[in-house]
Amino acid sequence: MKACGRRCRAGRVPLISLGVTTSSRVTWEATLNTTTLHPRRLPPRGTRLRGLFVLALLAALLGPVPSAAGSAPPRHDVVTWATSAFRLGTGVPDRAYRLVVHTSAGGDRMRVRLSNAFGDRPLTFDSVYAGIQREGAALVPGSNRRLTFGGRTSVTVPPGGLVYSDPLPGRVRARTNLVVSLHSPDAAGPATGHRLAMQTSYVTQGDHTADETAGPWTRSITSWFYLDAVTVRTPARTGAVVALGDSITDGWESTTDLNRRWPDYLSRRLQHSLATTVRGVANAGISANKVLADGASPSALNRLDRDVLSHPGVRTVLVFEGVNDLKAHTGVTAEDLIDGYRQLTDRVHAAGHCVVAATIAPFKGWPEWDPEAEAVRQEVNAFIRTGGLFDAVADFDRAVRSPDDPESIRPAYDNGDHLHFTDEGMRAMADEVRLKDLECASGPGR
């Protein structure tokens, strides 16, 4: 075995590793490293005495040296993946789901959060596993690990409730396709999930959660059921950002299975940034979502606590909402929308987080566009840029508007419906975010 140098001398043993090696084999093993001792020639006695004197003098000046255990840097939990749940059809008993999600921050002691937020009865999960995707529904051999809840393999989530698993020993790498497989023997009534996953997952009847092969998982889906967050333990300096938005943030019309939503592009930028220690990215986008009014999903104001403020390690919230309020033609004025932003910002600040607001992108050409809605958009964007309410601004409007017609999306970024974006448009929005603004270094409301 290889020598482990300072890590062994400090009395530390590497944690079990959850990840894929260069040979595409998963390493779920604890490696105990040892050092090899070699004889060495001692310096002359006088030199040794002078060295001891210097060490004694330094000890007197600097005080006692803390022990290795006492000097361990603090760590905390950070959200590495999340989605926003709402009602998604009807639960089916004895059904299993194999859900593929893409992590942002890397860390250890992974936990998953299961949701029965929209259920009307208790929901039992009797088998939940986590592994690493190999291809499709197949997992990297040896990676699938059973999760427990309070030490038990089964958990019942009350209606409206959320539950975290126990921490799983081992490490999850950043930007990894993590696979959570879960089975419920008694699902019924309203199911909780996320419809527009833009990611292929799998479903089957019967409990096949422990199976690492793709054999039983013959049906594919593009929604996530019951799973709404994954967290990892990281150094305390590591933080996360939550992107609060609608179908644009949700990634509609980006390429499925390639993680090309604008929050995904933002995550790629963050992983090696020197401008910030934010590494986690949670996507709280829901199609058709509004700031002010409930619709197919609760409004941003009504879902803020569960979808944003409940996640650990959050430092900043990036708000990109408002176009659905404008195009709904419900009489929403600029003052109404600004008041909604003010309420969101006050609550996020009260929770100790910063707010970065994105300007509303153009949508001329969408059937619900009209000059009146455009006038409100321009007034709201002027406030976002200069009103001083937010800790920082990301000017998405400027990043994606056409130079020939600023009321429209640049053609290369327009997916064709004049509201949603190509992969290139998603990247342009992510690139508009100043990463240092996510650090929240001066605290909220600075």
From TrEMBL:
Keywords: Hydrolase, Membrane, Transmembrane, Transmembrane helix. InterPro entries: GDSL_Rv0518-like, SGNH_hydro, SGNH_hydro_sf. The keyword Iron-sulfur does not apply. CDD domains: XynE_like (cd01830). GO terms for molecular function: hydrolase activity. The keyword Metal-binding does not apply. The chain crosses the membrane at residues 49-69. This is SGNH/GDSL hydrolase family protein. The lineage of its organism: Bacteria, Bacillati, Actinomycetota, Actinomycetes, Kitasatosporales.
